[in-house]
Amino acid sequence: DTAVSQTPKYLVTQMGNDKSIKCEQNLGHDTMYWYKQDSKKFLKIMFSYNNKELIINETVPNRFSPKSPDKAHLNLHINSLELGDSAVYFCASSQGTGEAEPQHFGDGTRLSIL
Amino acid sequence: GEDVEQSLFLSVREGDSSVINCTYTDSSSTYLYWYKQEPGAGLQLLTYIFSNMDMKQDQRLTVLLNKKDKHLSLRIADTQTGDSAIYFCAEILYGNNRLAFGKGNQVVVIP
């Protein structure tokens, strides 16, 4: 059983389109995250939600809008896609927000903008 | 601030030990993690160490932490071909659940 699952795994689309990536975790965790990994494999946090409330919002263009309908789901909607949005987006979850709570990652969504 | 540095590439023969190094700049980090990323896959948590520890051993993995030098290392004993991956160190700061990742170190195991 997959603990943190993301869909789709691959997403190829044209510049200017709007797309969504979905994430679900079945670990019973309270906190979920979105990370972006660029072409050089550098990973940076984008957002974090705890019990459906936004707790981290890094400097991310407002074209990116996370939505958490419940604590097991954290979706990422991206408007007006740009070439620079091409990356791998990882969802993660942890039991809480404490330092000792390891984060568990999904397999990533590979987004390619044409 | 948060700044985690890692070297880039390591080639090692199967059966040998491999050591991956990482330095960090924020002394308030409480937990330091090692994650493994296999090709086309997500990040798998390998191990972590609390900042008041110097060493942690977990089967073939040994983590060493030098707080004075802000240096973290991961030693993999008896490296296997399945260990070929990118390894990321990451730190989490006190009172903060942001994980700050290093740039990753690609390990290639030669049969």
Keywords summarizing the entry:
heterodimer, A: 114 residues, mainly beta, seven-stranded mixed beta sheet, four-stranded antiparallel beta sheet, B: 111 residues, six-stranded mixed beta sheet, five-stranded antiparallel beta sheet, 11 strands
How do the helices and strands line up, and which of them pair or pack?
The complex is a heterodimer of chains A (114) and B (111).
Chain A: E1 4-7, E2 10-13, E3 19-25, E4 31-37, E5 43-50, E6 53-57, E7 64-70, E8 73-78, E9 87-94, E10 104-105, E11 109-113
Parallel strand pairs in A: 2-11
Antiparallel strand pairs in A: 1-3, 3-8, 4-5, 4-9, 5-6, 7-8, 9-10, 9-11
Chain B: E1 4-6, E2 9-13, E3 18-24, E4 29-37, E5 43-50, E6 55-58, E7 61-66, E8 71-76, E9 85-93, E10 99-101, E11 105-110
The global form of chain A is globular
Count of alpha/pi helices of chain B: 0
Low-confidence stretches of chain B: none
Oligomer: heterodimer
Number of strands of chain B: 11
How would you describe what is shown here?
- The complex is a heterodimer of chains A (114) and B (111).
- Chain A has 114 residues and is mostly beta strands.
- In chain A, 0% of the residues lie in helices and 55% in strands.
- In chain A, strands 2, 4, 5, 6, 9, 10 and 11 form a seven-stranded mixed sheet that branches.
- Chain A is globular.
- The mean pLDDT of chain A is 91.
- In chain B, strand 9 and strand 10 form a beta hairpin.
- The model of chain B has no long low-confidence stretch (mean pLDDT 87).
- Classes of the chains: A mainly beta (114), B mainly beta (111).
- Chain A binds chain B through residues 4, 31, 40-45, 48, 55-56, 90, 92, 94, 97-108, and chain B through 30-31, 33, 35, 37, 40-45, 48, 50, 86, 88, 92-99, 101, 103-104.
How would you summarize this macromolecular structure in one to three sentences?
The complex is a heterodimer of chains A (114) and B (111). Chain A is mainly beta and 114 residues long.
